[in-house]
Amino acid sequence: MYSFEPSEEQRMLIDAIHKFAAKDLREAAHEADESGAFPEALIGKGWELGVVQASIPESLGGFGEHSAVTGVLAGEELAWGDLAGAMHILAPGLLAFPMLAAGTDEQKQKYLPPLLEGAYRAATAAWVEPFFDFDPSELRTTARKEGDSYVIDGHKCFVPLADRAEHLLVFAALDGRTQAFIVPRTAAGVMVLEREGNLGLRALPTFEVKFEGCKLPAAARLGGEAGFDPLLLLNATRVALAGMAVGVSRAAYEYALNYAKDRVQFGVPIAQKQAVAFMLAEMATEIEATRMLVWEAAWTLDKGLEATYAAALAKTGADDITMMVTDRAVQILGGHGYIREHPVELWMRNGRGFPMFTGLAMV
After folding, report:
1. Which CATH number is 8-116's, of 3.40.50.2000, 3.65.10.10, 1.10.8.60, 1.10.540.10?
2. What is the DSSP string of 232-252?
3. I want to staple 321 with a disulfide (CB 3.0 to 4.6 A). Which of 71, 116, 193, 286 is the partner?
4. What is the C-alpha separation between 112 and 56, in angstroms, rounded?
5. Which secondary-structure segment (H or E) carries 28?
């Protein structure tokens, strides 16, 4: 069974990430949300922590081995600092982790070392589609085979860093089955539209992308002619997002708790008021319970076991508690919760989007 304590190596990584999240991400989050972007130097500093690289073998440009458990621990800590910054820093993993899990040897050797070695280089994935009935397993973006090539047509949204990524991992329906294709941003038939204006993740540039007759060589299909099991990557994104949701929830809970201890009304801190105390207790309980679901799902992935049930349970649970916790944090702050100088309103806006963030994070 999975352990309830991180290993020494995991603890060292988490400690380093927490320092960065507290000193850099958290302090820059408000201005980044207002301006729409984090400074490139800060993103580069976050990249140098080696979260993605630590999950890739040295032979492929990294310096470790893949671990979903380590990934969710790191994702929680980065998202505790700021969700948009965390997703920006980890965006190269949207190509690297699927490539590691399902790519051919030739694909791994071609794409991973250039992506992982050296300074930050943007990469991304295009999974979500701009339709109210979007289903990640029944996509409207299609791929069809023409001779020795594949042709992609469709419309994607919530594609982070699409304006600068060298490659996009595009998910499309091939003969009714979800598959993925490695698409250069500059390929003919790829149109990156204007930047989206979103309720949350305002510091993470996301875009709609259209594909019209985008012709790709056969080698662009992830996994080659055999393809891959789409559930493998769907579960990986569910678990990654669930871990980040726990981080956002924890940030909101801790801030509300400290505020409630300091805020005095009628001679006593509001944390001693029964209504507030009960809310805080339930927030803490749900966060801890959801973290256990996330760890179990990540452990199941690492063991190579059937993880769909565990991943879906962790994801739906994390979606719900994040909205509950961030909303209650705003309530506990009262009028201050509605003021942008306090971060709880930012966490609530970011937290609201988790049910729609398929493919924006991966472990």
Report:
1. 1.10.540.10
2. HHHHHHHHHHHHHHHHHHHHH
3. 286
4. 9
5. helix 26-35
* pLDDT digit string, tens, across residues 50-102: 999 999 999 999 999 999 999 999 999 999 999 999 999 999 999 999 999 99
Contacts of 113 by beta carbon, 8 Å cutoff, 6+ apart: 60, 61
Tokens 């309720």 belong to which residue? Answer: 199
CA triple 14-17-18, angle to 5 deg: 85
pTM of the model: 0.96
Asked if 243 and 315 touch (Cβ cutoff 8 Å), the reply is no
- SS3 state of residue 293: helix
Q: Are strands 264-265 and 268-269 parallel, antiparallel or unpaired?
A: antiparallel
Give the Cβ contact number of residue 119 at 10 Å: 8
Tell whether the torsion through CA atoms of 172, 153, 108 and 112 is positive or negative: negative
Q: What is the pLDDT of residues 152-188, one digit of tens each?
A: 999 999 999 999 999 999 999 999 999 999 999 999 9
Please report, for residues 22, 311, 333, the alpha-carbon distance to residue 262 in angstroms, rounded to integers and kept in the order given.
20, 38, 11
Q: Round to whole Å and give the CA distance between 335 and 226.
A: 57
**Tokens representing residue 125 in the block:** 């994935």
Q: Hey, is 314 helix, strand or coil? A: helix
Which CATH number fits the domain 124-226, given the four candidates 3.20.20.70, 3.20.20.140, 3.50.50.60, 2.40.110.10?
2.40.110.10
Residue among 80, 82, 5, 86 nearest 49 (CA): 86
| Among 352, 83, 93, CA closest to 243 | 83
SS3 133: coil
